[in-house]
Specification:
The complex is a heterodimer of chains A (111) and B (208).
Chain A (H helix, E strand, L loop, with lengths): L4 H6 L2 H11 L14 H22 L12 H39 L1
Chain B lengths: L2 H27 L2 E5 L2 E5 L4 H19 L7 H10 L4 H23 L4 H29 L3 H17 E5 L2 E4 L4 H5 L4 H16 L5
Antiparallel strand pairs in B: 1-2, 2-3, 3-4
Helix pairs in contact in B: 2-6, 4-5, 6-8
Classes of the chains: A mainly alpha (111), B alpha+beta (208).
Amino acid sequence: MKENPLSKLARSDYYQFLYREYLKGRIKLFQNETDLTNLQIEFLKWLEVFKVIIDDINEGEDFAFKEILNDPLRVQAYIVFKSRKILRKKNKIFNKQDENKQLEERIVFVR
Amino acid sequence: MEKSKILEKVLQNINENKETAIYEELLKNNTITFKHNNKEYRLRRLTLSEKQEIFEKKSEKFGELSNKKNWKFREQIIRDLKEKGYDIEKLDSEMEQLQREIDDEYEILAKMADEKRIKLQEDKISTMLYRQQLLQQKRTNFFQFSIEDYLDFYVKSYLSYLATEVKVKGKFKKAFKDYNEFINSTDYDLISNISFYVNYLIRIGELA
């Protein structure tokens, strides 16, 4: 799989370091601070994706292997896995809320 | 490794590095510069009035094509193809289904740790991605003679003319005096260079 050039730049130590400094407000990443282009926005997304993966690796999250970083297919695989995990968690919470709501309605009805 | 394979790998690396460098430059200052016949060219973001000019030209062309009998909209092509036995809607749902299957395989890959199994799983996904490309290509081919696709081509050519500048005496000015000069240019290398960069800019949404 051919790697997206933005992803290649975003996973580099250089840009990851700059991004973390940028998040702390110490530097600016681009010459233009406002009116970001679509490309710059997409680059920020990739920087965030790799920041999350690197943080997950450092924190020993499930299936966050350091070998992922240099393999575009495994990066994509980790993104799908993580997104689905978050989605399932959300659905579980919503389903639980629905159950509670239905229970409350039934209680009101019985009263 | 065979010599030809090594060469292929080196060329692939050069192209990938070139591509990465283009993106890096774009990220920094939103322009692309390149040299051709010892002249410096650049493609820059369009101004609002240039975008408006493109919109007006597109609208004129739309009116012109929609009045011609031999030009069809995508919707009409879909209907005609269905009568001939090609079902685009079926193709679309096949593509959606394939995307879901690819994501399922990605999820399996994410949980793997064994190198051999990872390699097998990656091969499986690559084959599916290739199939996805073929389906996408098939879909694109069906519409290549549609009004919408022709308008895309027209807009791409027009904005290439508007966005391309050449450096003369230290200052950048329009490389082509008008659209006709651009489309009638016989400097095929220059046009090919411009198309290459314009495709990038369109793909990333900078020029559209």
